[in-house]
Amino acid sequence: MYTLKSTIKRGALLSAAGALFVAALLPGAAAFADALNPLTDRSLLLTSSAPGFMDSDGAGNSESNPNAYNGGEYYALPGSGPNGKKSGETFTFKVSTDSSAGATRPIKAFSLQYCTTAAGKCQAPGDNTGDARTVPGPADRESNATAHALKRSDLELMYPTGSVPGTDFQVFVNGVDKSAGWTLTTKNVEDNSFAPSGSNLGHLTGKDNYMTLSRADDTIIPAFNQEVKLVFKASTNRYITNPGSGSFFVKINSWDTDTTTDHIAGGAHNIDGGVTVANVMTDSIHITTKVLETMAFSVGTQNPDTLAVQHGSCDAVNSTTGNRLDLGNTNAENSLETTQAYDQYSYWRLSSNSSGGATVYYSGDTLRNTVGDHIADMPAKAHSQPGTEQFGLALVNAGADTLDNDVTNRPFPTNHVTPNIFPLAIGADYADGAGTISDTTTASNASFKFKETSKAIPEVIAQNNNQVVSCATAKVRYVGNIAADTPAGVYTTKINYLAAPQY
After folding, report:
1. Has residue 290 got a pLDDT over 70?
2. Using CA atoms, how far apart are residues 410 and 473, in angstroms rounded to an integer?
3. Residue 105: other Cβ atoms inside 10 A
4. What is the three-class DSSP state of 144?
5. In whole angstroms, what is the distance from residue 497 CA to residue 503 CA?
6. What secondary structure letter does DSSP report for 223?
7. What is the Cβ-side half-sphere exposure of residue 459, based on CA atoms within 13 angstroms?
8. Across-strand partners of 126?
9. Where does residue 441 rank: exposed (0-12), middle (13-18), buried (19+ CB within 10 A)?
10. Neighbour-count burial of 7, counting CB atoms closer than 10 A to its CB (0-12 exposed, 13-18 middle, 19+ buried)
11. Cα–Cα distances in Å, from 75 out to 170, 492, 499?
12. How far is CA 292 from the centre of its chain?
């Protein structure tokens, strides 16, 4: 049974009832005062917020499909946005207890327990059917291998004995890599008496939901308020399978011993913790477009590359130039053209009661077809320029939608009169999505950016670190351009948006 010790920051007052509760559980509370110190500025970033049964690329190919390009992992590599089956995670927090040189309590272990609730008894997150208990009846919980085909998934921590520090996971203290010397173990820690409603027992998953990072020496000694970062990397054989739907919570504790039997929440060896971080599963934005077969040939007396005007990289001589989005000319099978830019829009909205604000990232690949051809991304902020391969995105003011008459199709409730991204601040490279996209000579031309490396390293698009986010609405504008020599085919991608609140 897990006891929540405190979720308040150092210096805040306990209520009278809370004080009695702690005293009842901890008769020697004065001796273990450090156990009341919470970890602060807590944040959990997932490499993928997709449900655990999702691992397909934009064309629907999955890792299990031997005929898919590059084994099916070209778009949905482990640790990339669309792959919820093989996700990675990063925990970031600051310590309250001073363990610096000369202190008596160096950190020898961290524990992370995944549950469906933020406090109390623990049931591992997941939506497979059945129950892992052998009492009162035989265990009949679905395996993920069975459930994934039915679009269900339980959380699983796939870091077996022998996971390598620095390769499979990393530990940073105050920005310094301290990965060497740690051992990672996982196990199932659920409460057999978990009953979320009345006398009805909750259905336990039986899957691993508890990770322990431990070491025997005394070398991890962060000072008060220094940051610790725990990074769990995703690869083909080392990964975290996300639960199928809904939110989940991770309870974090630090310990002054590597003896796991002494890891008792609120006990003598508990340093900081008794606190949680939260996250939630979402689906991808699925974008499809097409490049039609074309041929162009021109002759003339003037080279446009010598003219002091903007132009595409292959202009003709003597010429001037639900979650699924179709990007392109609707009168030509949603295809892209060399002389015309096309755009589409999606939205995301974020609410969080995290007093430290939140950061929003995107993760995904550029547009690709199934034989490996791709439309170039925009790793540096740039204007839309038809005739040049580009796939980019930027944000525009969602409040502008209140000026049109299309109330029925708005993706947000009509009672939000002027929805916008406040209090999040848009990253400078993604703040100029409004404006023209096909007139390359106009000063108000919109600017876009997109990094295909975001499929492995999520890219920050907006953030706020100072206050709760009550209802931030973002309108994302996507632009697509092709060159005359862009290979023909159907191009797709999936873009995931990841939110990491800081508690």
Report:
1. no
2. 12
3. 18
4. helix
5. 19
6. P
7. 25
8. 154
9. exposed
10. middle
11. 25, 10, 21
12. 34
The two three-digit tokens of residue 279, written as one number: 């996250």
Q: Which two tokens stand for residue 455?
A: 């499929």
Instruction: Sort strands 324-326 and 285-291 into parallel, antiparallel or unpaired.
Output: parallel
Residues 124/133, Cβ–Cβ less than 8 Å: no
CB within 8 A of 14, min separation 6: which ones? 6, 8, 22
The candidate with the shortest Cα–Cα distance to 73, out of 61, 87, 88, 81, is: 61
pLDDT digits (tens, 9 = 90+) for 145-185: 999 989 999 999 999 888 999 999 999 999 999 999 999 99
Q: Residue for token digits 């000072």?
A: 223
The residue type of 51 is P
What is the DSSP pairing of strand 285-291 with strand 335-336? Answer: parallel
CA distance 450 to 478: 9
- pLDDT tens digits, residue range 68-106? 444 444 567 888 888 899 999 999 999 999 888 676 789
| Nearest-angstrom CA–CA distance, 227 and 92 | 7
**Whole-number Å distance between alpha carbons of 393 and 386:** 15
Q: Which two tokens stand for residue 464?
A: 């706020």
One-letter amino acid identity for 421? I
Q: Look up residue 72 and give its two tokens.
A: 């099916």
Q: Which residue has the tokens 């990491």?
A: 500
Distance separating alpha carbons of residues 254 and 6, to the nearest angstrom? 14
